[in-house]
Amino acid sequence: MKAGARLLPAALAFACAALLFERISPQGFFDPDGYHQMALFREWLRTGALPHVDTFAFTHTIVPAVQHEWGAGAVLYVLATKLGAGGVMVARWLISVAVVVFAVRAARRRATPVVVAFCAPAAALLAALAFTTIRAGLYTMLFLAVVLGEIDRDRDQPAPRRLLAIWLPVVALWINLHGGWIVGVIALALHATEQLVRRRPIGHLLLGLAAVPVLMALTPYGADYFTGWWRSVTFPRPAVAEWAPLAHSAYVPGLAAFGLAVLLAVYAVARRGIRACPGWPFLLATACAAWQHERHVALFAMAWFCTVPGWLAATPLGALLDGAVARRRVALVVTVASLAAGLGLCAVALPRHPFTLRVPAQGSDLDVSPVVYPAGAVAYLSGVGFRGKLVTSFVNGGYVMWKLHPAARISFDGRYEVAYAAEVMDEDRLLHRARPGWQDLLARYTPDAVLVRRDESLARALPGPTGLARVYRDDAYEVWARPDRRLPPRDVTGAPVPVTFP
User: Which residues of the chain have pLDDT under 70?
Assistant: First the structure.
């Protein structure tokens, strides 16, 4: 192969990888879910049993409290406590690279490098939503890429032993790491349906599906896992932004990429016919899920990228793309443009310190970061030996769990559907937005202290008739406490907040 022919695919791969790198480079903050997941695993180590009854909150919790991401918390706990922030980031990038490798491998089975590169930008813009700092959903992206690759291989030449040898351990891990494993089951079930219509062997596929309930029962939660998983799947989430319809998203590049992806899929089906487009039922299912909930956009991106390039390869558009770069001058221009674009995207991404784990906790983070942790306030409470009930929020409750449990019990955290009754989310919003009735809510729960961001409505409404007094303040957070707790006042406004990890 000539050097120029080898350079073009490499340049295209570099440009596409650089685009994904640039998209996820700002997402170097530690995800809030990581703290409550680590706290749960630490509680298991401390007590010798994985709690089925919540021990962290003083508000209305449910029984059993089943955390289907307990395994992700165990992995994070080991990484954070043994290797620190650097270990977490190394793992995050290794998993991210593995996701890309398996996805590209699946796409390349039926498409040329040029067609795959043509499709990659749309997939990168959509999938970037999933590449946060080692959030449990990243495992779903990895395992889904593996499963879709094996499904496509099974279409050509069914190999029951190979598929089951991969499917069973992957799903066993998946079930303990993230609730998104159901997506893999749906993919296999729809593949089995397609194979049945095509009169291909499906016995091994049915066996793989039949093994799933057994693997669910083998988790540390045993039979309780079924109850917890079903609640997680069916629990309403109207107040959580990432569960809003895609049409409501402020992520304009993602909306544009979704539209382009759908158009290309429709074009391929129109040109080739539905029977010549294997995998379309699963692609359609993920497209509908993505349109309903922004959280599922990354799943659609993975399904689309592993499937549609192969469809396009046998269309006039695919032939046009391959024919264009077959000309030496065009190939040279595309190679140079790809290298330049890749270098430019890296130049944009690197100043964001994408390999550094961030724990935003300063007042300056309030306007620029989706998450700001109460590091200073929690350090203050720990230092004065606080014990009791502490009002927290959906975002910062997990951080407080990790730092102050068992001395402090919280009102709410990100374990929305896992541990809390449905009304607790409404109570959290009512309180922190200081809506009518917030004083009555505080009177009912009688907390010992309230943790509040300074830019929240509640911070402006306190103390009101609550009898609480402000005992701590920095540029990001305040703590209001009952006077009988006799907490010493401290105001460090204007001073940087020290942050430690984990």
Answer: 1-5, 132
237 and 89 belong to one structural domain: yes
Specify the length of the chain in residues.
Answer: 502
Distance CA(112)–CA(9), nearest Å, equals: 9
Residue 70: give the domain boundaries. Answer: 17-352
Beta bridge partners of 480: 450, 470
Nearest to 339, CA basis, from 349, 327, 347: 347
The count of structural domains within the chain is: 2
Bridge partner list, 470: 480
Dist. CA 353–CA 85, nearest whole Å: 13
Calpha distance 224→211 (Å, rounded): 18
What is this structure's pTM? 0.94
Per-residue confidence (pLDDT) for residue 164, from 0 to 100: 97
Cα Rg for the chain, rounded, in angstroms? 25
Residues 322 and 467 in one domain: no
CB 60 within 8 A of CB 420: yes
What is residue 195's predicted lDDT score, i.e. its pLDDT?
Answer: 97
pLDDT of amino acid 69: 94
Domain contains 300: yes
What is the C-alpha to C-alpha distance for residues 74 and 221, in angstroms, rounded to an integer?
15
Structure confidence at residue 207 (pLDDT) = 98
